[in-house]
Amino acid sequence: MAKQPRRSWIAAANKEDCDFPIQNLPFGVFSTADSAPRCGVAIGDMIVDLAECEARGLLDAKGSFARPHLNDFIALGRPAWDRIRERLTELLAEDGNQDTPLVAMADATLHLPIRVTEFTDFYASKNHAFNVGVLFRGPENALPAQWTHMPIGYNGRASSVVVSGTDIRRPMGQVKGDDGPVWTACKRLDLELELGAIVGADSNLGERVSVEQAEQMIFGYVLLNDWSARDIQAWEYQPLGPFQSKALGTTISPWVVTQAALEPFRSAGAERVNPLLPYLQEERPGFYDMTVGWTMNGQRMGHTNYNVMYFSSAQQLAHHTGSGCPMRVGDLLGSGTISGPEINETGALLEMTQGGKNPVTVNGESRTFIQDGDEIGLYGYAQGSGYRIGFGPCTGTVLPASE
Amino acid sequence: MAKQPRRSWIAAANKEDCDFPIQNLPFGVFSTADSAPRCGVAIGDMIVDLAECEARGLLDAKGSFARPHLNDFIALGRPAWDRIRERLTELLAEDGNQDTPLVAMADATLHLPIRVTEFTDFYASKNHAFNVGVLFRGPENALPAQWTHMPIGYNGRASSVVVSGTDIRRPMGQVKGDDGPVWTACKRLDLELELGAIVGADSNLGERVSVEQAEQMIFGYVLLNDWSARDIQAWEYQPLGPFQSKALGTTISPWVVTQAALEPFRSAGAERVNPLLPYLQEERPGFYDMTVGWTMNGQRMGHTNYNVMYFSSAQQLAHHTGSGCPMRVGDLLGSGTISGPEINETGALLEMTQGGKNPVTVNGESRTFIQDGDEIGLYGYAQGSGYRIGFGPCTGTVLPASE
């Protein structure tokens, strides 16, 4: 790509605290009062109408932008991703094309950016795995024996992935009671601060991909809140893993930040405890130096960096194909809860309140877990010099259970 | 529906040991040298070409039969399922329409009958859960505390579901070694004899369905072999459940036997150890009196009845929506391994050989787990008076690992 311009003719994109400068160009899906859902790119306070761009001959993506999801565009492959990014950079640069069709973000409704094919959730923060392990199994059995050797993951539920702004209904569920199980509204509703990687290429049954190949298969990233019902989880999760405790909703950000935009922020992750088996070794650091955190009712709560993680998305994807499992465009891989070592760096209330024992104060109110009406927001950005690559909001408000 | 005729003008359908009599009419997807994949119904040794039937005005399914999967037909809903079944029964009865377009099964290639939306696997044979629990965790912790109270399930991988006849590659994977984990070809490759239920209606985020509603949402059933890499499973499965050990391939039968065809065989399941919570109680028995079993290289191995199960597909589906998880047309729910109480009634080699300790003899050869080149077949049929409702073959042959 040609030299990266630093400024756009769209003024809001040039503000230092704007999530969507010209260096970012994240993809999403939007609609307006006048137009059906279609693909767009965020720039400043505007959205580039990609379908309209193509209709006017400003770029070529084989009609894939006129769809209500990014999957068809993503399926065109990495050369198309790079070509479109380069073309948009030209159109939006200070000396670009001011006739590029735009929609004000304030006038748009944002939709789920991808049709989620399948959803896999990992568990790649050592701090989180240890902290939660202590609460579920005690300190001696906290970190599973295989944890430092493989990215532990489980299949989640794609149908319950929703876009930021979707209300989340407190779930009912079966939990352990004093005299046998009871059916109840969840009493220990939690969030999980995660990054989601979006798979951008298919692999075949019986085919394994290397970490290097896996990295090339990743289109981009979203913020991801893996809402969790801890009381339901504790009763159901052994021996086959979390199930209904994780199926009440998973919120993702509407904007997919591309790997290309994050490339300048490449970073090493957590220090390795032991060498990895060759199929998981990576030749260059696979993490990003990226601030991530979460808010409750607007108050900043946990705040950390994605580079505390132990396994990268590329390592997770390579491991995912280890048995020959086919991957498909639109698969979503959750990083696992991102928690730093300190209590104010944790990405879940379960950790922050130590299993509900130590309440936190939120706008003067005490909380152990999430109450009805609470709004949880995630944020994330990689800080450049005079600009930042952000994701925009990723929020959800909890509704009372429907008993 | 009018009185069920007992004979068809297609002679092979009237044989007592034919899996596909006029009482069955299972749906699938087939192609021939001259035609692209489309929907069909098995009858005797023939397939009714449903797309051609519709083209000739013999039935009406809104064009859904001209597709390479059953999903669009299934999405039409139960009234359409019943109407088409009634119409096919008329066309194929002894006094039916001998111009109904047919293809010889011998000339057809059978395809995956549904586009699998998501795949969930349960664990509903108490015998199996106990037997495997002993091997993984010892007799005291064998049956998890919640087992008799809820259908334990986990999300599987839809992308690795394949149709009968697809070769299965022995997976590579990470397993526990004497000096830390090693990367190796699976040494304990196993089958799991299951029934798969196909969800035929959508539910919404935050919506729960009752057991009665769930039963109405099930379109039909397939045989399902959940190939399992036991050594990979043992190392990876705690605390988040099986992952790569179950993603090497899941084989289903090409024919979907409808709930309507199985209705005369409705049966109670295993005796309850304790009362269920109200959301899992069912007003009438939710199981079927149906012989199921598996073969290895043609030799009969485990042989039991589906009615040994503890939780029905309808109970599993109701539980699946417990937290408000949305279900979608084409979701596949594995019953869990079907094992009777005796060793020759078990649905997995892990149980039959007691974790590989007691080899079995197959055509004069000793086996603990599956060797390269072995073919595993499943069978299943409900025995009526003078006819049976069968699934046809569900087979797969194991190829050597690609190291």
UniProtKB/TrEMBL annotation, chains A, B:
Chain ranges of the Fumarylacetoacetase-like C-terminal domain: 119-398
Q: Which GO terms describe its molecular function?
A: fumarylacetoacetase activity
* SUPFAM superfamilies recorded: FAH, Fumarylacetoacetate hydrolase, FAH, N-terminal domain
Keyword field: Calcium, Hydrolase, Magnesium, Metal-binding, Phenylalanine catabolism, Tyrosine catabolism
InterPro entries noted in UniProt? Fumarylacetoacetase, Fumarylacetoacetase-like_C, Fumarylacetoacetase_C_sf, Fumarylacetoacetase_N, Fumarylacetoacetase_N_sf
**Which cofactors is this protein said to need?**
Mg(2+); Ca(2+)
Asked whether the keyword Methyltransferase is assigned, the reply is no
Q: Which residues form the Fumarylacetoacetase N-terminal domain?
A: 23-113
Root EC class: hydrolase
What is its pathway? Amino-acid degradation; L-phenylalanine degradation; acetoacetate and fumarate from L-phenylalanine: step 6/6
Q: What is its EC number?
A: 3.7.1.2
Query: What is the protein name given in its UniProt record?
Result: fumarylacetoacetase
